[in-house]
Amino acid sequence: MKSYHLTYGGGIEGLVLREHDIPKPGPGQVLVRVRATSLNARELMILRGDYPLPVKADVVAVSDGAGEVADTGEGVTRVKVGDRVGASLFPLWLDGPFSFDVAPQIGGSLDGMLTEYAVLSEQGLVQIPGHLSYEEAATLPCAGVTAWHALTGGRAPAPGDTVLTLGSGGVSLFALQYAKLYGLRVIATTSSDQKAKQLQALGADEVVNYRSNPDWHEAVRKLTNGRGVDYVIEVGGAGTLTNSLKSVAVQGQISWVGVLASGEPLISLAALRSAFANLRFVAVGSRAQFVAMNRAIEANLLKPVIDRVFSFEEAVDAFRYYQAGHFFGKIVIKLRE
Fold first, then answer.
1. pTM value?
2. End-to-end CA distance of the chain
3. Which partner from 53, 107, 127, 171 sits 20 to 30 angstroms from 42, CA to CA?
4. Domains of the chain (ranges, CATH numbers)
């Protein structure tokens, strides 16, 4: 079997393909034949050397993946050989709030999914929706679960509420799709007229071009008759958070799911105070949230948005394509059948 390994802070040039013997699962472990993986912002953070959680030396890359159970170790009861499964990014986080006790994460302190076979804890595995291909299911563990947690993990959304999504990355597109399942109105921001059309086709009710409207919070306020939005799915840094705080309604909710921008000034306390809103940080989600999300996806036959699929041999090219940023949806790496 083959797998891609990386060095923390080593850049894309540090991705190395290695050959190994196929491992045997131990007690409570499962051997998964990986069929597809997908890339997330965390992968680029690890390669840059600014990921906030521990990364072990020579780790097998990438947190997200889906495949079939090839073998099980002693005592495994949750899955069986032949099951189609995905792996929770935090396999110890089964339910409840996040804590550092459950912080070990796939593709960081634990080996990842950019490999032909992965040994995983049975506790972190979930059955993937039956209508999804492996390529589609591989997009769910990080971006899909993060968006679900961001939208549903705090104050419960109600039909007629308005949610603001930023850009066209994986988390934002999943959040848009989930919001429509809940009957929410969606205002999205984007950088181009072409992407605006794609967002509208996916269900966005209004789209604001942030390049032609640098003070896009004013457009958002106008679209909500001055009230502001009930939810913001915030995926940027201090630059976008400032405008998000100016876009949210009094007692609205901003779910801050990560910092994709760097080198920005810190947000001011005055900006936080003046928003009179709830700011919550979202760190992906638990296995219970993964399961709940999958139920909603399967019940509504929702399909993830995939921009491009690369072969396993083209994995380095996939990373470069993702780093360039000219995509709409998820970047997937497919392994041979």
1. 0.93
2. 13
3. 127
4. 2-141+285-334 (3.90.180.10), 154-281 (3.40.50.720)
